[in-house]
Amino acid sequence: MDFRFWICNNNKVKLLAVTILLIGLTLTACTTGNNAPTPTIVPLDGSATAQSRLQFDDAPPTATRLPPPSPTPTQTPMSMPILTPEAVTPDSQISAVQPQAEVIVAALNVRQGPGVDYPIVAVAYAGDVFDVVGVNALGDWLKVAAGDDNLGWISGQNPYTRLLGSGLDNVSVVQSPPPPSISAEGGKANGTTDSDGKLIFMTGSGGELYTVNIDGSDLRRLTGGVIDPVVSPDGRQAAFTRWDGAEFGVLYVINVDGSGERSILGDIRQPKSPTWSPDGRKIILSFQHGGLRDPEEECKHFGPGQKLQIPRSRVKITKFGVSSDGSVNVCFIRFEDLHWGLRQVDVLTGAFEDLSSDTYTYNPSWDPQNPWRVVYDGEWGLVQLDITNGKRWFLTEDLRDSGPVFSPDGKKLALTYKQHDHWEVYTLDLETGVRQRLTKPSILADPQYSSAAPAWSPDGLRLAFVTDRAGQWEIWVMNVDGSNQRPLFAPEIQTRLNLEYRGFNERMLNWID
User: Fold this and answer.
1) Structural domain tally of the chain?
2) Domain check: are 485 and 365 in the same one?
3) Any bridge partners for residue 210, and if so which?
4) Residue-wise pLDDT tens digits, 302-321
5) 328 and 344, same domain (yes or no)
6) Which sign, positive or negative, has the C-alpha torsion 225, 230, 233, 235?
7) Which distant-in-sequence residues (6+ apart) come within 8 Å of 165 by Cβ?
8) From the CB of residue 452, how many other CB atoms can be counted at a distance below 10 Å?
9) Do the domain assignments include residue 441?
10) Do 271 and 404 lie in a common domain?
């Protein structure tokens, strides 16, 4: 080995060792302070994560600038006035903005006082805005006015009204006289007669049965599990059916005060739509009678070249196979096809007889003035039945006519009519054959709301019906020509009723004296 080469390299090694020693001493001197932060060594190749960068435990958080509003307003130079003590108006001298109430439901009853027991004096509609001039002690009823006219009271609850302007802090609490009470004779304490009567209604098929005064007072539950209630001609009893499961049911009668519930006839397959005879002694109802129920799968084998013979309609093919020799195996299930007939029942004895009817017979209605005539839904329209001799003939030939209800004088029928994809209420004049559409949604309404299940007032001048135009099923009333359509009760009562019409031509309502 060359000695000069060894000396040179040895000197380089010594120089490197001395350099490393000096660096170490320098680092040791920098870390002797107690408060000095400890750095984190960061690789120079940029592969370190955010957490591996130099950080201090006591570093302040980084402030985040808030974005400007959109769009950003243009800054316009302006001179700011100097406010002197005389220019500042004390808070006590600032007049509060008049609070207002906006109606936010389709229609809202205006009442004589702060509660549903007060008579209805007017109807307000969605978008109407009134000045609030008073409030009841609980703050949930508002006394409203339009200009100088005090109109009455409306509900101040959120689902029905929206408060505009200032709050109610500066609105006076108004004390009102107690609502009119019902006397023992049935007249109201103010001397007027209770000529509007009351409603008896079910909440839905198989639901609760209630009575309520036409003004919305005295809501009473009678019984439950009710299907298609109908009141007797004297207004004292209601007939309805109740099913035991999906197979059989019972015909019941109950007094309109909720007492005396009793079964008239049982073991009837799916009874519906009872209707009273004019003298109140008999009831006719619709019931399931014959037809195909719970069909089972059927299979057939057809040899080569043999014509396939299976029902051409109302079947569902479940299996189909062709063998190598050309024979065919096919299995299918027929659609259920239930037939419905009419049964007449004696209310006192429970004796019954089945009447002449079509294959599909629904919703019978007994003429209150002509005991021989019953009208029902047939397969192709409304059918008249003479129960004295069993003869039947078409009254209408529109299969969308359904749910006929006779007027008290027997001259008209109120109908529930399937109008494309929703229900409407019509009347049919039995003497002239003229039909009149009473309900009609706006062409812009989406979806097209329904109106159904009409019931005549005792004087034949008005009709009660159910409608979902306000977003829930409610009871409304209108004149017999379709005018003055309005909700019968305040929204808070409508919500409590929880009505449901399912489109099975349910008889929901009865209007009685």
Assistant:
1) 3
2) yes
3) 201, 221
4) 999 888 888 876 889 999 99
5) no
6) positive
7) 97, 98, 99, 100
8) 26
9) yes
10) yes
Q: What is the identity of the amino acid at 453? A: A
In a domain, residue 155? The reply is yes
pLDDT in tens, 382-433: 999 999 999 999 999 999 999 999 999 999 999 999 988 899 999 999 999 9
| CATH number (domain holding residue 150) | 2.30.30.40
d(CA 372, CA 369): 9
SS (H, E, C) 78-101: CCCCCCCHHHCCCHHHCCCCCCEE
State both tokens at 496. 């409590």
Buried b (16+ CB within 10 A) or exposed e, 37-67: eeeeeeeeeeeeeeeeeeeeeeeeeeeeeee
310 and 363 in a single domain? The answer is: no
Domain match, 101 and 233 both = no
For residue 296, give both structure tokens.
């089972």
Question: Do the domain assignments include residue 182?
Answer: no
User: Whose CA is closest to 395, among 374, 409, 410?
Assistant: 374
Burial 285-321 (b: 16+ CB within 10 A, else e): bbbbbeeeeeeeeeeeebeeeeeeeeeeeeeeeeeee
Tokens standing for residue 304: 């080569």
Q: Could you give the CA distance from residue 497 to residue 464 in angstroms, rounded to a whole number?
A: 15
Mean of pLDDT over the chain:
79
- With cut-offs at 50, 70 and 90, classify the pLDDT of residue 96: low
CATH for 272: 2.120.10.30
- The predicted model scores a pTM of 0.62
Read off the pLDDT of each residue in 444-456 and give the average, rounded to a whole number.
86
What separation in angstroms does the CA of 165 have from each of 151, 170, 215, 506? 20, 12, 32, 45
- Same domain for 329 and 341, yes or no, is no
> Cα angle at 46 between 40 and 51, to 5 degrees?
45
Q: CA nearest 475: which of 147, 145, 212? A: 212
Judgement on whether residues 146 and 265 belong to the same structural domain of the protein: no
The Cα–Cα gap between 497 and 493 comes to: 6
Tokens at 337, concatenated: 């096809």
Do 316 and 361 fall within a single domain?
Answer: no
How many angstroms separate the CA atoms of 204 and 81, rounded?
68
Q: Which domain holds residue 159?
A: 97-164
State pLDDT tens for residues 248-274. 999 999 999 999 999 999 999 999 999
